[in-house]
Amino acid sequence: MSKETAVYTHGHHESVLRSHTWRTAVNSAAYLLPSLKPHMKILDIGCGPGTITADLAELVPDGHVTAVDHAPGILDQARATAAERGLENVEFAVADVHALEYPDDTFCVVHAHQVLQHVGDPVQALREMYRVTKPGGFVAVRDSDYAAMTWYPLSQGMDDWLDLYRRVARANGGEPDAGRRLRSWALTAGFTDITSSSSTWCYATAEERAWWSGLWADRTVASAYADCATEGGHATAEQLNAVSEAWRDWGRQEDAWFSVLHGEILCRKPA
Question: Is 0.90 topped by the overall pTM?
Answer without folding.
Answer: yes
